[in-house]
Amino acid sequence: MESHHLRAIMFRRWTLFKRSYKSIVISSFLALLFTVLAIAVNYLMKSLLSDKVEPFRFNSFLHTSDQIVISGTDNYTGSDNLVNILNQTFYEDVGQYPTFTYFDTREELNEWMYENIVSKTGPEYVTMGVGFNNEVTFMNYTYYNNITGFYNSSWVRNELTSTRVNLMRILWKSVFGIDSDFTYSITNLMQKMQDFIFGALAPMLITCGLVSIVPIIISQPIIDVNGDVRQYMISCSLKLFPYWIATFIIDMIIWIILVNLAWLIYFAFGITAITDNLFNTWYVFMMTGPSFILFVYCCSFMFSSAESGTRQMFLILVILLLVPLFVDIITQYDTPHEVNWIYGFFPHIGIQRILTQILVKVNILKQSLPYYFKDDKVSQIYLIMQLTNIPLYAIILCIIEKIRIWIHRKVARAKYGSYGEFFNKAKAKHPVTEEAHQMEMNVKESFDYAVRIIDCSRLFFNTSGDPIPAVNNVTLGIKENSIFGFLGANGAGKTTLIKMITSMIPPSSGTIEINGVDITKNQDSQILSICPQFNSHLCDEMTPREHFKLYRLLYKLPKDEAQKHTERLIETLELTKHADKTVRELSGGNQRKLAVALSFYGPAKIVLLDEPTSSLDPVARRHVHDMIKEHRGQKTFMLCTHLLSEAESLCDNISIMVKGCVYTCGTPQYLSQKFGTEFKIDVMLKNDLDENNIKCDEFFKNNLPDAKLSILRPKARIYSIPSNAVRYNKKCFWYLLKIIKLF
């Protein structure tokens, strides 16, 4: 593995983290918010499920009324005294005196109660009843206090206990005095229940907290997979293996910091389910990280936008978490082992299921980690899958990277197969010159070219599904250490051809060779460097100096030599004042300067420049031209431009492309003599105000009516003037001087 690539990507990822700290803080806040929520749930349960002491008094009955029924007072000598004590005690407990209803026998009492229920004419509730039984004499001893309590049989447990206790209190007072009493209470110990419930609920909250850091992990891979930055780095020698390793290391560091912080918060707040399983929970938190991060990497290929992808991924993970809950309800928590193995393939479900097994085991039930590996069959499955998923998703990630390139190539060629005739007809509509035919013959017969393009085509489809021959059977050869120009209007196929040469997109048909080696084979990526048409390959959150450091590491350049080269490029392109600003803060022109500088930075012998001066002012454009001339004869250049003057002054040979086809090719002098029919006037405006744009257009309309606006940009305009119009308009050059003064 290339260690310099590893260091380069780690440097880039860490720099991006520092610059995008706000998004990291938000994701970290969400993770900690779920941690706080879990702690709040724990304390809420403590308050709701606290130990309850329930003393039994007359007001302990479920339905306390002032009605008490009494039977058999004639059977017991001391009944009046006991009734008086009952009367006083009831008053002390309830705050009012009871109403007694007397019956001679319990049969009468029972009949009265029944009729009262049926007719609903008596009191709605009766608190309790007291029945005095006959005194019993045995062996010359008389047994007193032979009393029966009557209670509501609808609430057997509570009312029976309350009745018994209150009768005992009456008898106690009859023996030890009216002011004496005792307290009989039942304490419901809810701590165990609280710990158990938290152990069941907390895993879901904890897992949601860990899942909420997904935006930190997935956003950069989505951007890189779908954007131009990673593809450009690959064209500058980056290998995918160190790219993913470096990305994984940084993400794993973030994971370790956040999960340890959450774990310490649980510990600091004394959450029993955590403190009784300290090592077990820490192990599960830590070991879920690698497989979860790799799982997220594999999923990143499903999304095209980081902004929407992060939200969708979080939603998918949460929905997946709910699936086992519904399955548990349906199966009444008797989940088959086969289903648990399936759950195990999803790391975040795994941590939720393992924590469910661990956190309910507190106090005397707590177990060491080996127990969950050996004896707990459910946890065993998830712990095994935690380890298995690491190589599994690493392999899947490698397969995805390999197969997507293979698929792109196969799809590109497969689609072309049914459109071969369409391409031939399209090319027939654009007849080519003898010079183009001669180039085709030379390239097919000779291998003496640095870049050899043979019958290359590229098929695209528009939004309506109609085929577009972006590049149509192009055959070209670029000699070593020459400067070859590609001329053509927008949409002629120049940029598409450049992207195929750099392997950014695969050709639909044909072959491309660099120094005699097919680019689909193992090609040394340091041979080529490119300045793309647009600046989307630059990292918005990195400065120009940081870009040079990144590519110094990728190219493995000597530090001192690279530093001197960096300063020379910065000075040449007048980037000194902007070298420490992020790309996002740079103007379009300064971004373009950086893009050009990077293409000259590496050791590549073949440099592809796709409209390198498109947004540069005349001074900066001249600097770029000087850089190209400085390396003339030392490097092979391919220059895409729409400026004939630029191609004429720089290129050894030029090809003109029309509708994806090579119309002609030759030296600038030869083509100018044969096809030079118009002049180009390139106007750079001081600003992009509408007023200035209109003023410029009116000037040409009034003074150079033959000029036609061919290319329009916010601060630039290019006009085409027929050569005969210039020849017969003596004031043409005077007007050009006036344009310089005005605009």
From TrEMBL:
SUPFAM superfamilies: P-loop containing nucleoside triphosphate hydrolases (SSF52540). This is ABC transporter family protein. Keywords: ATP-binding, Membrane, Nucleotide-binding, Repeat, Transmembrane, Transmembrane helix, Transport. It comes from Tritrichomonas foetus. The keyword Transmembrane helix applies. Residues 451-684 form the ABC transporter domain. PROSITE patterns: ABC_TRANSPORTER_1, ABC_TRANSPORTER_2. The keyword Protease does not apply. The chain crosses the membrane at residues 21-45, 196-219, 240-269, 281-302, 314-333, 381-400. InterPro entries: AAA+_ATPase (IPR003593), ABC_transporter-like_ATP-bd (IPR003439), ABC_transporter-like_CS (IPR017871), ABCA (IPR026082), P-loop_NTPase (IPR027417). One of its GO terms (cellular component) is membrane. One of its GO terms (molecular function) is ATP binding.
